[in-house]
Sequence to fold (356 residues):
Amino acid sequence: MKNILLLFSGFLLLSCSSDADDNTTDDTPIEAMYFPDNNTSIWETKAMSELGWSEIAKNELLDYLETKNTKSFMVLVNGRIVIEEYFNNHTANTPWYWASAGKTLTTAVTGIAEQEGYININNKVSDYIGTGWTSAPLEKENLITCRNLLTMTSGLDDTLGDDISPENLQYIADAGTRWAYHGVFLKMQGVVAQSTGLSWDDYFNAKLKSPIGMTGSWIPIGNLNVYWSTTRSMARFSLLALNNGKWKEQQIINANYCNDATTTSQSINNGYGYLWWVNGKANYHLPQSQYEFQGSVIPSAPEDMYMALGKNDQKIYVIPSRKMVIIRMGEAADEENFALSGFDNELWIKINAMIN
Fold:
């Protein structure tokens, strides 16, 4: 009987010990995603030492960025600022243009308009803005859906410049059969305005800009509508993208739509979503080219990364596996470019040296 009691006591001790170990594991703190409040300059930070990053490599990275005409560089992990640097007389309060990185703002607002029932991206563009918005034959124009505008597969001639007046939007291929980087995506802003009954600016401000505390404004430049803001406002939008359209407790953009926007959207250019570039695919196309390049868009960068890339090296990099966002604003690092450049790959080699 005594032996049985001892055996039972030992079993209880082992069980208690096991429970204690389980509790220790369960109680291990997991850092929650942080979102800065609106209308405040307060933004939580995180030390590089906590992440085990190299301070030496960071200094080399910042020196490199300064020599490459950079205005600002910002890194967030779990929403907290790890690096925020300004160069060449730029400041935290100075606005700068997003260029084509701002295409993703159009993607976001389109998603909001769809979830509110104003549009369906599978419907043809002419359902919202009427026929005759291109010079294509009517039967060809009516093939063009809102999704085609978001995926750069309108089939319209991309060699005629940024003018999106009807006479400059000419048929070259059936919608969905050809990928070409084209300013015609801006017609989606007209679709949103027409369907909601609000101006593009008013709907954008009410549904996206104000809810996440962005600043900035749309400024017409030639035939384009370009967004200008501070680096922190670009970071706010990037943080929304990292969290699949969720800001704090509010789902601003449908999560499924966000996932579709940041993954391959068609079979022609595997490196493109809904105006977002997608890394880690087998091949991709570049602006102003019909050539298919093999491999990842940015080979040195994480494969799960998606990117908003603008003229002269405006960059948003979103890396879900690391819960990381990286922003770069400035002049062209080397030569003028449409979106992608050799700078992306070189920059990521230096980022990797710091974070790995």
Observations:
- The chain has one domain: 48-355.
- The first strand starts at residue 70 and ends at 77.
- The radius of gyration is 24 Å.
- The mean pLDDT is 92.
